[in-house]
Structures are given as structure tokens and as C-alpha cells.
Automatic annotation (TrEMBL), chain A:
Originating organism: Lachancea fermentati (Zygosaccharomyces fermentati)
InterPro entries assigned: AAA+_ATPase, DNA_pol3_clamp-load_cplx_C, DNA_Rep/Repair_Clamp_Loader, P-loop_NTPase
Protein name: LAFE_0G16314g1_1
GO MF: DNA binding; DNA clamp loader activity
Sorted UniProt keywords: DNA replication
One Pfam family in the UniProt entry: RFC_C
TrEMBL record, chain B:
All residue ranges annotated as the Checkpoint protein RAD24-like helical bundle domain in the record: 344-472
GO cellular component entries: nucleus
Protein source organism: Lachancea fermentati (Zygosaccharomyces fermentati)
Name used for this protein in its record: LAFE_0H09978g1_1
Cell compartments where the protein resides: Nucleus
UniProt GO BP: DNA damage checkpoint signaling; DNA repair; mitotic DNA replication checkpoint signaling
Primary site of residence: nucleus
Gene Ontology molecular function: ATP binding; chromatin binding; DNA clamp loader activity
Pfam families per UniProt: Rad17, RAD24_helical
Amino acid sequence: MSLWVDKYRPKSLEALSHTKELNYFLQSLSSEARDLPHLLLYGPNGSGKKTRCMALLQAIFGSGVYKLKIDVRQFTTPSNRKLELNVVSSPYHLEITPSDMGNNDRIVIQELLKEVAQVEQVDFQTGSASESGGLAHRYKCVIINEADSLTRDAQAALRRTMEKYSRNIRLIMLCDTMSSIIAPIKSRCLLVRVPSPTNSETIDILEKVCKDEGVSAEAEIFNKIADSSNGNLRNALLTLEAMALNNEMSLKSTSAIIRPDWLVVILKMANHILKDKSVGCLVECRSTLYDLLAHCIPAKTILQELAFALLKNVNDDTLKLAIMKCASTFDERLRLGNKPIYHLEGFIAKVMCETSS
Amino acid sequence: MASNGSPCKRPAVKRSLSSLSSQINEWNESNSGNGIANINAKKAKPMSSSIRKSSYQEPQVIMNGTQDFMPWYMKYEPKVVDEVAIHKLKLKEVTTLLQPMLEGKSNTRIILLSGPSGSSKSTLIKLLANEFVPKFRSRPLNSMTKNSQELKSVVEYCGSSTTVGTSNMNSFNDFLTQSTLRVGSNLSLLLVEDLPNVFHADTRLNFQKTLLRWLYSEDKKLPPLVICLTECEIHSNSYSESSFSVDNQFIAETVLGKEVLSHPFLTRVKFNPINATLMTKFLKIIAKKERASFSEYKWKQVNDHIKELARNCGDIRNAISALEFWATSSLEGIGPRGDLITREQSVSYFHCIGKLIYGSKELSDDNAMINDLMDSTSSLLGDNLKLGILENYSTFHKQKFPIACAEKIVDALSLSDIMSDGNLFTHLSESLEYPCRKLRNVFSTLSSTRPHQDQSPHGRLYFPRESKMRRARAKFEREADEYHDVSFYKYQALHSFKDICHLLGFYAPLIRKKRDFKKKVLNHYLSTLKNDPQESLEIRLKNKDVLSIDDEVDFLNRIGGDIGGINSAQDAAVLDDEVSIRNLSNFRNKGLERLKEAVDNRCGETENEIDDEFEFDPVVDSDDTTRPLCSVGDYNDDDDDDDDDDDDDIYEMLASQSPRKLPTVP
């Protein structure tokens, strides 16, 4: 059986659970399916951007959008290198993730969009759509996941493509933060902010899932899970399921919260750093860092979580300031450099120095 | 060698040699593809001279006249063990190892002599073999026919002997199989100098397997096998390839692999470059014998020149050639210093790092030392060197130095990483120099305040873990891809790579593992219900989600393995890893293929049919779970709390039973 996080994913706009206002907004969008604008959904991780996006498509095209398949497409770079990319698609849309394509995302995006755009969409449901004005949706949707990781180059290329093919293509871009999206793209899209659920909303959802799954739970624990998940609903549901299975389907308010192991490792490391400011500790931290990197935890996330964990453990305001300063310095270096290990270790060493005085 | 050469032609010999050695240095140019040709070119040097003389008792066939025209390093090749330029202790080590082996009293089956070129490895082993092997040969019964003197003491493996084009992957295996009977009365020493093409991964694995078979062989009496491995670093140009593998570190760890090296029946003897004292001694002996070749002017300087040569070069073959060239060249102007022509004494990787961390004995001035280093170590080492510094700076004073110093060093490294001119992969040339100087600067102020004068401050140096990390990362990525496919084809759920890294990589296997356990318990229970198919069917229906776990397909362990710290051991598990990754990729394929097929089949059916099938065919197996989510959702709506309590009861009941009883329940 699929995970609860997938099992209880709402499939239609009506079923969407939190942030009701947004749901009405999306419903009104779907009722005017004929001129759907390009969309840019932004909001923190686990707030339901993708879910909403799919629900919107479902409202426009019907449940066919959930009939997904994966095909492999080939692209050729200017340097004549063959690229293979897995593209997930339904009859009505396709989605791409820039991080799959590395530095060649400009070519992939251009080629893919051109290919899609050159095929005029034929609407087989014309009959049923006649009451909504016929030929309601002769476009195909392209979902771009993690749009904030598109290179500048690709974004610039996208700008042109969006105008040129807007007849046949609608773009729906999803991103965590808009800061790395260039202005021309923002101006061509309808910006939709998807906030993460509030704690009480998260708790409601968790309660509902527990009821459906027959998990008995004390109310207190929901609070704890919601707190630890930090507004990330995916995290909250996964934690709930892991805990429920761990505790024979009955959660006490004292049950231990199961957090992702890498986060636990970072928290431990933060404690260690503040307790033992020695070269030996630094060496131990390095091996932990290497391990985190080996598990594909982005260096930026490591730095961020580590900095916050350190802040939590420090009471002195000047020290907090110093830690933030170090973190921002090394964050920039991470971005400029290409071997994260130097910068992460550099950060730890610097923090050790700053806090030891 | 020229047969009618006149003195003025002699330098040509040297030149061809140097072109050979430059060929070695440029290996990476023509790397993997035609590696074998290069190996042969390199190995040809020692062999051509020594094979012929493998039984030195034979009278010299070469006439005195022609002997003049042999290069000196062949002419003055040691004839007895005492003449070999090697440290006494090392000589003793090898002798005490070899003798019991020849007597058959030792467990050691393979001796590995490793070291840089020109460190007397092969010369020594051949001379030793000639001295000892005849002694330990048992007298054959019909000794009249055979004179044991005529038997060769050394049997050598010639990888190059097989014709070009034919596969010689098994040639080594054949060689060993043929040689197993070289014991007793025709005892001889098996010498492997010429390796198969180890740059080709399969050939290398084959080579290693053959060695392992030899090591594990049941046969009690095996002839002694000696492997001479000339180790060298091959500087790699390509940025991405800077890992610890045979392609840039041609050393025992990468060539033979961990398993062979750590076998108790293999003994490794490491040879060092020949030290200056020994070198001077032997060069002087040669110079004395060749007095006639030196002009008066040069003879006066010869001692200085030899000293300089000995200081710069640990390669005796090369040093003799250089001496010969200097002596015989007509150029009078070449001084003892200045344009010294020897093989560039390449500073090895760890040597270089050691110099940076601990300073150099010879050059007290750090700046000069670093200048030297920057000139000699090709900038090709680049990032690898910096990673090496990062990995090893902490070994200084056994980690007993203030954190502020460490901070300075790491900060320098971090800064140097961002010193680029816009292009991500080309760093400014200063970017390497900066952390090196910083490191020396920081540590030179510290070294005067050494805390424990009595114990050696030198720690063990390690190879950077970066490459290990990269391999682990590749493994994670592969598993994440598989996870993505499994969750798509089996559960119709799409997960982005980011989510797999952050959450699902940890949670999903955890959850599935619990369910897998439940499934096993449930299956036990179901086996007790054979008499009641109706009830068994009901339970199957109610616990579909548990029963659908398939440990062949589902991930039950943390993707990418548990987080536990990557160890910095210098060992090169590289080769083993390559194999295991290759196997890994096949692990889940079968299950995945099945899932894909099932999905493809379903695509042909209409939704209606799926629903029908669902209602009339409730027997669950893993294939069934590829049903689209919507129908599953419908199904779950029917679930009520009762079912789950039921489930719990079963679970409790079975959990309370001792596992031994379970099979006996009718």
C-alpha cells in the first residue's frame, strides 16, 4: 500500500483540506479553463503546491491527468552529447524537473516546449465541453517542478518561449522561493502563494488520517508532530505513519517523535560543536559532513539546519550574531565554490573560534 | 643498443631512455585505451637486460669489444647480491622471507615487491633466486639426465608475448596453471613483472581473482610467486577523474585490490627510492671503472656531480644513465650543477602533503620549499592536493593544536575554492599556492612549540574521502532512482528527488520495514486458516496494504545506507566497490520489470475492467497493487475501525506466541 502521504493526497479541488480561500481561488480559475494564465505557485516545502496544481488540472481536464506514464526523451546538446531525460506525462500535461538535467536545462526546456507546442491539441471532449464554450482547452500544460533551480540561462530562454507558444502551452511553475526567479518571468505569470498549513490545520489533517487508519492517539501528540514538522505537511504525515507503525497503532502523548536521521545527526553535531571546541571534534564533524553529502543532503540545507541548531543552543545575543555572520559568509562561499566540504568545515571551525572566547 | 656506435653516438641511448620515461609521465594522454602498449614499453627496460642473464653462472657471451657500447646500467648490472644497491635491512627482510618459501616451510605464497622504478626490486629478486633456488631444489631421482644447473631459476610471466589482438585476459591464469608444477626437483621462482592490462577493469578483476585463487588454493606445494610492481602516480588532467583509482595511482592498492593485499599468505615488501649515500657509493664505483670515459676536466668534478645526482634522484638506473651521459657527452660546459639532467624526481602525493604539513628537512626555508613544490608538482594535482591538505592537516601534532590555527587553514582552503575566474572548473593558479603557504605559515610558528618532544609528531596520512563520498553519492542517486520507479510503478506516486533526499529516503523504508514485519506475522496466521478459505479471504482483503509489501521490490533499508560516518581509511576499496555497484544495479531489476509490464498491460484495459477485476479477483499478490489509486481509495472507504482492531488482535496474538510453535499449528 502506498504511504499515507500519497494515500490521503487530495485528488480534486473540493477535497483540498487547508487554506480554504486559495481553494476558491483555484476553483474560479478552473471554471475559466479557456484562458488559464501561466501560473507560478510558490510556497514552502510540503505546503501542497503540487497537490493543488494536479487538482487544478483535474478540475480542468478530468481525472485523466492522473494517468501518468514515464517516457525517456533524448536531447542533443550543441556539443553533440546525448542527454536522456525521463519525462512524466499524462494526455493533458507533462512535467519536468530542472535538477534532472543539470547544466543543460536551457536546451531541454526549449526543445521540449517547442516539441509540445508544435502539436496542436485536439479536444476530444468537445461535446461535453460545448456548454463551457467549446474547444475549452486546446493547450497542454507543462509543469516545471523546482523552478527556482532553473539556471538564469534557462529562465531567459523560457521568457521567449512563453510568449511565442502561449497559444498551445500553459506553464505551471512550482518553486519554494521566488527570489531566484527573474522578473520577466514573474511578470508573465499569475503568482499564487501557497502557504503552509497552520498548526491547527495540520492537526486536523492528522486527526482525520488517524481516524481513517484506526490509529488511536492522544491529542497532545498531534501538537508535537505538527511542531516538529515545521509546517511541512509531507513531513508531518510521514512522521505520523512511522510513529503509528512503531507504536502498534496507538500513540501516547509521550511517544517519541521520529525525525529524519540526517536532521538528528545535524542536531547532535551542533551540540558537539558547542561542547568540544577542538581539532579532534572538527575531524569528527568532517566525517559526518561527508556522510551527509553522500546522502545527497544539499550543502546549503546542512549549513542552514546547522546554523539554526547552533542558534537554539546559544543564549548570548552577540554569539548569535556571530554565528549568523559566519553562516552568511559561508553560504555565499558555498554558492561560489564547487567543493562544499571546505566551506562547511570552515563554518564549523569559525563557529568554534567565535564561541570559544 | 648500437652495435657499431662511436662515442659520439652514445647520448642517443640516454635520449631514448628519457623519451621512455617521458612516455610514462604522459600516460594519461593515451590512458585507458591502449594502456597495454605503454605498460610493455615501460616494462621492457628492466626485462631486456635481465632475462638474458637470469642464470648468471653462464659465461658472458658478450665480447669485451661490444661491451663498451652497452649502456652503463646494463654493463654494471650487479652480478651478485652484494653488489645490489639496497639497504642491508631490506635485503635481510627479503632474504628471510624468500628462503623459507623456497624450502616450503613458509605460509607465504606471494611476495609483493612494490616501489618506485629503479629501486633494485627486480635485480635483487633475480639474483636472490639464482643464489637460493638451486640450493633448495630436491635432487631428482634420475639426476643423471638433467643437470639442475640448466634449469632456469626464474620463470617469468610475459603478458606481452600473446599476439596482439587476441584476448589475453586469461593469459595470466594460464601462466599460473602451467607453472604449478615448478616445485621439488624443478623448483623455480615465478616472477611477475609484466602485468596484464590492469587498466582494463575486467582484465584487472580477472587478474585479482586469479591471484586469490592462488592464495586460497588447496595445493600445499606451490612454487613461490613474486610480483614486482613498479608504482607510480599518473597525473590526471581531467578534473572529474581525480579519484583514487588505478587510472591515476598505479600502486599496489589499486592494482591488486584490498582483498589480495590483506590476505595473510601475501607479504608485501615496500622498496624506497635509493638513498643518497648508497647511490653515491655505487656511482663512484662505476665512475672509477669508467675512468677512461671522463675527460680530465670532468674527472675533477665527478664527485660533486655524483653527489648532486644522488641527492636529486632515487632511481639508480636513471642516475647511472645520467652519469654516463654527462661523462661521454662532448659538451665540456655542462657543470655539476645547473643543467642537471635526471628524471624529474616526482614528488609523490603523500610526500607532497607531508612536506606541506611538517616542513622539509633539507630546505629550512619554507618559501623556497613551496616554490620548489609548486614548480615540481604539476598543478594537475590541483584540487586533489587541497583535499589532501584538508584531510590531513589535523594529523599535525596529533591534533593537539589550537582550533584557531585549524580555522585559519580551513578558511584559506575555503577561500581558495572560490578563487576562480568565473569558470567553475578552472581555478586561478594562485588558488593552490595560497592554502599551501598559509598552511606552512601556520604550522611553522607552531612547530617550535611542540608539546611532546619525545614522540614523533608525524601522524599517518590519508587519502581524501572525497572520492569515497562521490561513490556513496552515486549509489544513493541510483537507489533514489530505483525508489522513484518503484513508487511510481507500484504505488502510482511520484516523488521528486529532493523529497527522497530529505524525507522519503528515511521514512519510507522505515515504514515499509514495519509493514513487512506485520506481513510476515500475518502470513503465519493465514497459514493456520487453510480450512477456512472464506475467513482467510476476508483477512487478506482487510490487510491488503500490509500484504502488498514485497521485499524483492520495496525498499526496506535507508536509501544510500545508514548515516554512520565515512571512514578515512587510505585503503582503496575502489575496485571492490565498482563490482558491488555493478551487482547492485541488477538487484531490483527483475521486480521492477515485472511492475512495468503489469502497468503496461493495465494501460490497455479500460477503467471499467479494472474495477471488475478488483471486485471479482480479490486474491492479493504484489502485482495486483499496480491498480490505480482511485479504486484503492474507494476500497479504503469501506474500511472501518473494526478491521484494524482485528488486525491488531491478530498481531498481538501472534506476537505473543513463541516463534517455534508457529509451524506446528495445523
